[in-house]
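Chain A, query sequence.
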Amino acid sequence: MKITFIAIVLSFALIPSIAMAEPKFVSNINGSSFAINASNSGSQAYECVYSYSFNHAQGSVASQFSGKFYIEAGVSNISVISRNTDRMISTLDFDYKCTEK
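Chain A, predicted structure.
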């Protein structure tokens, strides 16, 4: 009986966090190109504002960009940014803030 009660309490604690999960981002740098993909396994849609910058291996000035996008609930692995550059990329910084819609 005690185990059943604990299982029920845990399920009520975990279900809201699964339903309200913010989008997840994955980045991939491949030489002189990079991609950032997003997934939203939650049950809510989000509007996200993002900014990113990257440096080339030679230490040139960082290139900075920003934008915004809308991601529906249940979407997996959509491309947010895909970019090719003329030189190898050494660092990629990505920052975002998502609000529930």
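DSSP finds one helix and six strands in the chain. The chain has one domain: 22-100.
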